[in-house]
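seq:
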Amino acid sequence: MCRMAGSDRPGGEAWSATGLAPIVRGRGANRTSDRIFAELEAAICDLRLEPGRLLSETELAGRLGVSRTPLREAIGRLVDVGLVDVTPQVGTRVAMIRASAVEEARFIREALEIAAYRDAAALPHRDVGRMRGLVQLQESAARTRDLEAFFAADEAMHEQVYVLGGHFGAWQAVRRIKPQLDRVRRLGLTDAGLLDTLIAEHAGIVDGLESGDTEAGVAHLRTHCRRVLTTLPALRVSHEHYFTGT
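struct:
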């Protein structure tokens, strides 16, 4: 099942708040705000909320089953991380994808992930069993065109690089700066040929760790992290209404 971009229509009309899960309230406004933020961030990153879509505060509050106070707090945080824009007398809308933000996130991710990979490769004992299993999950997801499962396995595979290298905190930092990058990564998954390429790159990354050939593994990882640079130009043409700026 694919829960990727719902349409290729240009944004502008108010978005209908389907596909969002009602928020289960915790104790205190902050915890509710955190849950709203997480749900809206996920919906923006997986393109249920498309770039440029106008957001109705009333509809969002009703769909999520929350009051406006924690909703506004969550939207403010989304503005702070660049996923939502608020324009006076125009409204609140999902931020367009900025290629410069995508490149900045890619640069940071590549630098940190290669450093974590080298530390993982330096360990005397490297258990890559979970990573192998995740590559196999991707192969299965690619066969059934389950892009959500494919992306989830992709994320888990990269998380393992940081975990094995002893840098889980760095992974958490990377997650905070890559939502713009993730939107482009998800758009690219609609290309069936790209899935096989990504799987092969992941296999090479795992092979390098298992065999101890660190430089070969780093080469695969660097190519993989830069893959978005080769897919981005075509996506900017096919989904031009999702992008803004350089």
